[in-house]
Write a structure and sequence with these properties.
six-stranded antiparallel beta sheet, alpha+beta
Length: about 400
């Protein structure tokens, strides 16, 4: 039957050429229109934070711009502060801390500078740990619900975002255009090399404040890591709170035509299969992706990458074994890995960090950047009880 239909179609094309030509119409795609532009802040690890308003609330809120989020969300404490009512649902979300049901706020508007994004359903989650990590209130995360509607251009040189309507857009002549698999999250093929070479799918995740992450199961099954690698225990933070991961490096990652060597890599015991193994092996985070200016085009299922001024920046290889957090107006030590440089320097949980090196800025992102220099002795002033103490921290290299 299929063969006979094909024969009929071919015959019709031969005997009625004029009719076919007259009936064909090619509809040109409208050009993408610039809708708005606004600045963003770049936090430690490459995390992008933009300001926006929610609904009728006059205050400006801070949102992480995250291709690794399958929707859009708002912080539970922000809801409590502004008395935003939500409705219980049976919808669950999965993060590195586990699986939980989340309430929703339906049919609300996100007010960006020069653009109102209407009819959004926000799920409610607790982002207290993200606020403590970045030292500034994180009120929510903007993901697929926003990206799916627009073309989003991100310039890390100028720290400016431009939002365009869907349509025909001219990418820069330089650079390269990726064609990820788009579900709610973009999934990009990348080639990696350490003990051996292999290609695999990885999430393209601008909300991850790291370079590269592999699930422990993928690393084990693929055998990609050199046997001499000795990953170090470290703390990581994300949806659901803090958890322990291992930190090492991988010899090379190739994204499109671009190669990155000696890339810091987290190994994650993915008990809830957040990374969707075996379909994907992990994620590429924004500490690597920020080395490109990018145009994220969900409507056309493309992402254009153009190397920027950060492209050749060295990766951070330092290891301290301590985690510092912003809590109640203070920067405090929250985690100390046993046997780490931080433990050997005699840091204690709840030490209040007054200065790192010669920097007294009380800026947690600045302090973290200073502590990312490997193989250095860094003086850290902490307050313990009523006493100021100077500790000598010798940072290790994870190479």
């Amino acid at each position: 039957m299929r063969k006979s239909i094909l024969t009929i179609l071919l015959f019709a094309h031969c005997v009625l050429p004029c009719f076919i030509c007259q009936a064909q119409e090619i509809l040109s795609q409208p050009r993408a229109k610039l809708l708005t532009r606004f600045p963003f802040k770049l936090y430690n690890g490459g995390v992008m934070v933009i300001q926006a308003r929610f609904g009728n609330i006059p205050d400006t809120l801070n949102f992480v711009l995250d291709t690794g989020s399958g929707g859009i969300s708002i912080d539970s404490s922000t809801c409590a502060e502004f008395k935003i009512a939500s409705k219980a649902t049976d919808t669950t979300i999965t993060g590195i801390g586990g699986i939980r049901k989340v309430p929703f706020i339906f049919d609300e508007t996100l007010h960006l500078t020069g653009l109102d994004v209407k009819h959004l359903n926000f799920h409610v989650n607790n982002y207290e740990v993200l606020t403590s990590v970045y030292g500034e209130k994180i009120d929510g995360i903007i993901g697929y619900s926003f990206f799916s509607k627009y073309i989003v251009s991100i310039n890390f040189d100028s720290t400016v975002i431009e939002v365009y309507s869907p349509g025909k857009i001219n990418y820069p002549k330089q650079g390269t255009t990726l064609h990820p698999v788009f579900t709610a999250l973009p999934i990009q093929w990348a080639n990696i090399k350490d003990r051996k070479k292999l290609g695999y799918n990885f999430y393209f995740d601008t909300g991850a404040g790291l370079c590269f992450l592999m699930s422990e199961q993928f690393a084990k099954d693929s055998g990609v890591l050199l046997s001499r690698r000795k990953p170090l225990i470290t703390q990581a933070q994300g949806l659901g709170g803090k958890l322990e991961m291992r930190l090492t490096v991988i010899k090379e990652i190739k994204l499109g035509p671009y190669r990155f060597r000696q890339v810091p890599t987290y190994l994650y015991d993915d008990q809830f299969n957040v990374t969707s193994f075996p379909f994907t092996g992990g994620l590429i985070g924004n500490d690597l992706l920020r080395r490109f200016n990018m145009i994220i085009n969900y409507p056309k299922r493309e992402i254009h990458l153009l190397p920027n001024s950060r492209f050749k920046e060295s990766f951070d290889y330092a290891y301290t074994g301590i985690g510092i957090y912003y809590e109640n107006g203070k920067i405090v030590v929250g985690d100390i890995v046993e046997g780490s440089p931080g433990a050997k320097a005699k840091f204690m949980v709840d030490d209040e960090v007054y200065a790192v090196g010669n920097n007294f800025s009380h800026n947690i992102n600045t302090y973290k950047n200073i502590l990312q220099t490997p193989n250095e002795e860094i003086k850290v002033i902490v307050k313990r009880g009523q006493e100021l103490i100077i500790l000598s921290l010798y940072t290790l290299s994870i190479r």
